[in-house]
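Suppose you are handed a protein chain with no further information: no name, no annotation, nothing but its sequence. What can you learn? This example shows the usual starting point.
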Amino acid sequence: MRTNRSFKTNSFSETKEALLQWSRSYSRVVWLDSNSHQDQYSSFRACLAVGESFVYTDLGEIKTFLNEKKDWLFGYFSYDLKNQLEDLTSSNPDFLGFPLVQFFRPTKIIVLDDDQLHFKYLDDFAHQIDNDHAAISKYSRLEVPNERSPVEIRMRIHKESYFEKVGRFLEHIHRGDIYEANFCQEFYAEDVRIDPWYIHQKLNGISEPPFATFLRMEDKYLMCASPERYLKKIGQKVISQPIKGTARRGMDEWEDEKIKTDLAQDEKERSENIMITDLVRNDLSKSAIKGSVRVEELCKPHTFKQVHQLISTIVSNVPENKNPLELIEETFPMGSMTGAPKISAMKIIETWEETKRGLYSGAVGYFDPDGNFDFNVVIRSILYNATNKYVSFSVGSAITSKSDPEREYQECLLKAKAMRQVLEERET
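A reasonable first move is to predict its three-dimensional structure. Written in structure tokens, the prediction is:
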């Protein structure tokens, strides 16, 4: 079904840039980049999937493929898929127009390890491996656009309105409707043209997160610097790693360590994380073998280039014959992007947010031929509809009974900083 060949590489970083540059000629692209973050659950150092033999936008078709074809699928689930999975609706406007679900069976997969490129091509395309390898070897750096204009970003929800809406969430919490809600706001620009490959390179360079993704589906693009894993399956083991709790980096080593320690001990931040950890435990228990759901790490501080984050790791074991897509259906969307209880939080979120989230808060990743998968959470991301010339990014924070509106607002601005910096950059 697939032909596998490997080649030595001389420079890991240059080969990474060359692969992304080479992908420009393809209308469907998924690029997964760990930025060399390694732990016991890491997948690829980097992986590129391009070209499509089939495209799937229906859950039933994907489930059948996973049962019968035993091959790779790359793509995404958008947040608003929740309306098919639960008794939910969305009436907020959608300015980006991403389909709810979109996966493709790539004709060409290239995996980059430390010093090797591994080509996994459908047999009908195997004769192109040598030429493609030669073409990739010619690139060294991503192209810098000849003309770059700063994008003037607008806020969908201004500060006064944001404070008012946080107050509404607090009313729901004090009434007992919910314990926590992840309230998001959109930043956007209209009638703009950007170079998505260049923007992704700049965004990724600022953050260098473990779940960075570049996605192209014809005229729609995602430039994603996500630090968060939604769900991974390895054999019968399932892993979820929600993030809740964010703090800025310090100006020096001493301040940085103090901020990290304070975050780990912050009562409000820990309570956010623990509530979502419990929610994820409940989601995983729907399919788990009895007694297998456990928390491996709780509220562990992790440091990234721009922020510190609290991350928990929850794992379970599932029956051997479990269809991988069913695990997604039972746990989607990631609890860190909703709140608790999950259904009630999603209903209330729809009332007070002003746009559909679309792919933001969704997940990008892959299914492999053995029924394994790995998906991130689409946060710290720029979305772009090239036909509509509309660019957008969203950020959010968890509202709990202990929330201070000003602090939540500042957390949103901190999370928005990298996307805004990249888009508003002026030529030098």
